[in-house]
Structures are given as C-alpha cells and as structure tokens.
Structure of Trans-aconitate 2-methyltransferase:
Amino acid sequence: MTDAPPPGAAPGRPSDAAWDPRQYAVFAGPRGRPFADLLARVEADRPGLVVDLGCGPGELTLGLADRWPDAQVVGIDSSPQMLERARTLDTGGRVRWQQAAAEDWDATSAGPAGPAGPAGIDVLVTNATLQWVPSHLRLVPTWLAALAPGGTFALQVPANFDAPSHRLMREVAARHPRAADLAPGLDRAQAVARPETYAALLLERTPHVDVWQTTYEHVLAADPDGPHPVLEWVRGTGLRPVLGVLEGAEREIFLSDYEQALEMAYPRRDFGVLFPFTRTFAVARMPA
Ligand SMILES: C[S@@+](CC[C@H](N)C(=O)[O-])C[C@H]1O[C@@H](n2cnc3c(N)ncnc32)[C@H](O)[C@@H]1O
C-alpha cells in the first residue's frame, strides 16, 4: 500500500494510482472518437474563451485550438503528470494549461477580466472526466452560470459501469484479501448519472439541450501472447483505484484473477477483441 497520495489526488479521498499519460495514450484513437462526436454538436462560430476541464495529456485540447485559432483556450486538469505531457506537446504555447481540481475550480475566473468584469466562457468542454468528480451534479449549474450568453457546455462520461470490464473488476475486488480497502475507490468510480438526469439538470436552465448515448464497438488489437487488451485499456483509467491500493504480490493476484475473467468475457478472435463501450453525451447552449 502506498503511504502518500499520488500527486494530483484530491485531498480526503482514497488514493488512486497517478495518471500515466503513456498508458492512457495506448488507446488514443478509440478514446478520441467520442470527443470528436461531442464537439460535432457544438456550434460555436467564433468563441473568445474555450475551456477543456479535465484536459488530460492535451492532444484533444490542442484540437480545440486548431478549430478556433482566435480563441483563448484553457486546459485544466488536476494531474501534474497529464499537464506536463500537455505542455510538452504544446510547442507553440497555444493553450493556457492550469492545474486545478474541478471541485475547486472557479469558473468565473477562467478568462481575463475586462471593464465589465470577467469574460464568460463561450465553450466549456469536459470529456471523460466527470466520472472522477462525484460531486459534479452540484457543480454543473455553477459552470453553466459562468457561461457567456449563447455559450455552450458539453460533457461526455462513460456509461459502462455495468459492463463486464467493470462488473468483473468489482467481483474480483470483492474476493481479494484486501476487499475492504478496494471497495471505496471502485464505488466512487461509478459517479455518473443517467442521461435523463443530465437532460433535466440542463433543461431547467436552457431549452437548447441535446443528450444522447452511443455504444462504440471498439476492436482492440490482441497479441496472442500479450496482455489482454481490455486490461491494458482499464489500466490507464478505471483500474487506477485498484492500482493505487495494491502493490507487489497482492496486485499480481488481482491482475491474474481479473485478466482470466476478461479472457472469458472478451474472447480473443482472429480480428482482435470486441470491446463494446457505451458513453453518455450532453450539450447545452445558453440563451443568447
Ligand atoms: C480519462 S482522462 C480524460 C482526458 C481528456 N479529457 C480526454 O478525453 O482524453 C480523465 C482526466 O480527468 C482528470 N481528472 C480526474 N479527476 C479530476 C478532478 N477532480 N479535477 C480535474 N481533473 C480531473 C485526470 O487527471 C485525467 O487527465
């Protein structure tokens, strides 16, 4: 068990393993697709201020700077490892990178203050991040209030916590000798709401709301002698609460039990491994 929380862990919570930008990047292609699908529904023409909350390693945030070259783009993340990677990628210094936890971030201070006070946010994107922010249903209204007139809020969260990848993770954790230590992190990692909850929350504040779910049938390359690709996928994200608790032999016992279960649930075939993954999207535009 690690003594100190990893850098970037929120205070007062069980420690997760630190984010590893290299592990996260292994599946950059399929992970990037939902971001593109989300942004396709954002209709901002010439936004002045664009914020990516939970920007991760920065590739996708830099895509926002490509799409809106005249905008000030801000990338916010709680992980120093992710921000370090983002700053390295941003050779042109096009994005303002800022370390903050979503829970503490003051959305009203995101842009430069002018004579009329701080500028509102024109586009606030948060992709694959709010599942790590259990209080986000309380925070979303404060973020909407910080939007400029006509501004857009766009979120995407995984909706796969009942999929075998996550169900088996919980089952293997429950029969592990450290079950009691593993449960809190895995429970916390289910903090997303149903699509209708996001829809109602947003519709109470604006009539311009679009909420949907998509199931992606990811096809993951599977080396017959290599680790199971679903294990490698979750290693970079959903397994972090487990990896933050277990070390050495305890970790090996967990990983071997879990991988065996994944082999049954997601068999390796000639074309690879099929990994269905459902995600929830919500886009809200404030009245102009
Ligand atoms: C799965 S990654 C998504 C990164 C990026 N948005 C993407 O789509 O590739 C989740 C990101 O959320 C960040 N994160 C997790 N909890 C956070 C919090 N409470 N506040 C801010 N960022 C957080 C992590 O550091 C990580 O970079």
